[in-house]
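Supplementary Methods. Inverse-folding protocol.

Structures were first reduced to a discrete structure-token string of length 222. This string, shown here, constituted the complete conditioning input.
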């Protein structure tokens, strides 16, 4: 069973290291939970991530003048995400994960799928994925995204037990979050780490496919 994970350095990377590694090409896929738009094989740069993760403006039809009505359902869903964010990853329930997935699909929140490699059977980010992580950190620190709140979701394929895969994906999501916090000073409350295990397969026809092993980043600011 392939269990490659994120490389999480014991000390934050230096500015020189970040600048140097950012020049390395990273590969990823852009997608939405409901209708993925793949850029398979194309290099996804920091600016591409920023564009893909920008919150879409909410358009409302109103009668007469004045401010548009408040979308109470969106406000409620935002509160639910915040409550989940306060929990430890291990305390999140299946219902929590399902509800977040419903919110992402319902409001078509901007999402990117990243192929992040980890060391076997651990949550340690592989050195080969550091450049991707740096570009992600730079994107989330961009002026267009830095005020947002983001879901960092870990996914596995269907090989191995449900419990193992869930625990593994939780650890991976936490590693990504900690890397971003330590190296880019992104606030704890700005990143919601969730492990889905094999609950949200991308390729249902081939549950063991490597396409299912991914880290998903979603802009929850809506």
């Amino acid at each position: 069973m392939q269990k490659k994970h994120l490389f999480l350095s014991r000390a934050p990377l230096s500015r020189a290291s970040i600048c140097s590694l950012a020049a390395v090409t990273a590969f990823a896929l852009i997608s939405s939970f409901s209708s993925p738009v793949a850029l398979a094989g194309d290099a996804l740069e920091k600016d591409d991530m920023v564009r893909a993760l920008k919150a879409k403006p909410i358009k409302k039809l109103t009668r007469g003048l004045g401010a548009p009505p408040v979308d109470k359902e969106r406000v409620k869903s935002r509160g639910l995400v915040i409550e989940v964010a306060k929990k430890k990853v291990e305390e999140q329930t299946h219902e929590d994960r399902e509800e977040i997935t419903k919110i992402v699909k319902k409001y078509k929140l901007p999402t990117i799928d990243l192929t992040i490699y980890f060391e076997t059977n651990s949550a340690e980010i592989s050195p080969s994925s550091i450049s991707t992580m740096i570009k992600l950190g730079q994107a989330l620190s961009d002026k267009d995204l830095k005020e947002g709140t983001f879901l960092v979701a870990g996914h596995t394929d269907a090989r191995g037990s449900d419990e193992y895969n869930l625990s593994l994906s939780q650890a991976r999501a936490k590693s990504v979050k900690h890397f971003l916090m330590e190296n880019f000073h992104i606030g704890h409350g700005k990143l919601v780490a969730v492990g889905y295990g094999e609950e949200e397969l991308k390729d249902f026809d081939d549950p063991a496919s490597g396409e299912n092993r991914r880290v998903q980043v979603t802009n929850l600011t809506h």
